[in-house]
Amino acid sequence: MWERRLLPVIGQPQPERADAVRNRRKILDVAARMIIEHGTDGLSLDEVARAAGVGVGTVYRRFGDRTGLLMALLDEHERRFQEAFLAGPPPLGPGAPPDERVIAFLHALVDRIVAQEDLYVLLERSRKANIGMGPYGLHHVHLAALLTQVRPGTPTAYLADALLAPANACLIAYQRHERGMTVDDIKAGLTLLAESVMR
């Protein structure tokens, strides 16, 4: 009897084998648990592989290096965040005035970073981390588009960079743990900064 099979579309990534999907999930679950139990300082791909019961080569092929593993751990939460600011309810999502959306976005970004602060700090301190790494590009495009609606004709690409600069994990961690600032204090400062930019 003829069995219907889905053929790959040219140019599209091949679907993953079930065992590869299981291994990926197992590796991510183990890495997340290790970070919760021991923090990010000692996170080693070799240890993750051992605890997940997979070969070290599997981890390296799948994620490349520790930075790749960290990016994968952040990915699921980042997808939800992006969905919220691109298509969710206002004021973060469409439907609110652009100046309100700018502030809602910056506040939500702080919450997003604080939720996985250790991972973000480790990623930012990584040798390979740079300003354009990870979701920064989409965050920048979104913020610049909103600023263009608020202040057309101004250098909104620069202004978006200026507003995103203080919303980085290392600075937020320093403000919270060394300066004793609360998340609300940080958001209040970002609000003042954004309002001065949008006048």
UniProtKB/TrEMBL annotation:
Keywords for the protein's UniProt record, in alphabetical order: DNA-binding
Keyword set includes DNA-binding: yes
Keyword flag Ubl conjugation: no
InterPro entries: Homeodomain-like_sf, HTH-type_TetR-like_transc_reg, HTH_TetR
Full protein name: TetR/AcrR family transcriptional regulator
DNA-binding region per UniProt: 44-63
HTH tetR-type domain ranges (all copies): 21-81
Source organism (scientific name): Nonomuraea salmonea
